[in-house]
Amino acid sequence: MAYRAAIFDLDGTLLNTLDDLAAADNYALAQMGMPARSREEVRAFLGNGTRALMHLSVPEGTDAATEERAFEVFTHRYNAHHADSTAPYPGIVGLVRDLRNAGMPRAVVSNKPDGDVQALIASYFPGLFDAVVGQRDDVRRKPAPDSLLAVMRELSLSPRDVVYVGDSEVDVQTAANAGTDCVIVSWGFRDVPFLREHGAEVIVSTPDELRTAILGAGGQR
User: Fold this and answer.
1) Are 184 and 172 in contact (CB under 8 A)?
2) 36 with 46, same domain?
3) Number of domains observed in the structure of the chain
4) What is the pLDDT of residues 51-95, one digit of tens each?
C-alpha cells in the first residue's frame, strides 16, 4: 500500500554510522584501560542509544561511576568525530528527495542523542526532513512510542497514515507500540534471520524496494 508519510530511524537505516561509533567506543574503552570491542560486537550492541552501547561495551561488573566516566569520554570523542567515516547508504538521499517531490511528509526518530541527530541530518540531508527527533532526557526512548507519536502530532498524522522505516528489532517494536506499519531494511545493523525471528514482516534489500513499499508500485523514480 501507499502511505501518507514516512518516518525513518537514522543509524543503520539512513546513515552508515558504524565505523565512527565503533571508533569512539573503542577510544573510550582504551582510555579506561578496558579491552576493545570488535566491529561486529559494536554492531550488535546498537539500537538502544549510545548509553546502552557503552553499558554493553564495558566489562561485566564495571561499577556505575566508571561506566559513566567511560560514557563521558565516548560522548566527547563521538561529538568531535561523528562524521569521519559516516555516509548515507547508496541511493538513500535520492529516495528521500523522491518522497519530498511526491509531497510526502518525512521525519526522523532516533535513539541517538538529539544534538548528534540534528547535526547529522543537517550535514547529510539538508532541507529534506520536516521533523527530526533524537533521544532527550525528558522523553522515553524507543521502543516506547513517545517520540514517534509526538512527530505524528506535529505533522497532523494518524498511525494508519504512517510507515516507520528502520533496521532493528527495536524499530519493529516501536512501530507496533505506536500502531504504525513497519518496513525494515536489510542493509543495517541486524541480519535478516534475526529480524524475522523478532517480528519483522516486511524487509526490503534495496532503496528501490523501499521506494515501492512506501509510495506503491507507481511511485516516482
Assistant:
1) yes
2) yes
3) 2
4) 999 999 999 999 999 999 999 999 999 999 999 999 999 999 999
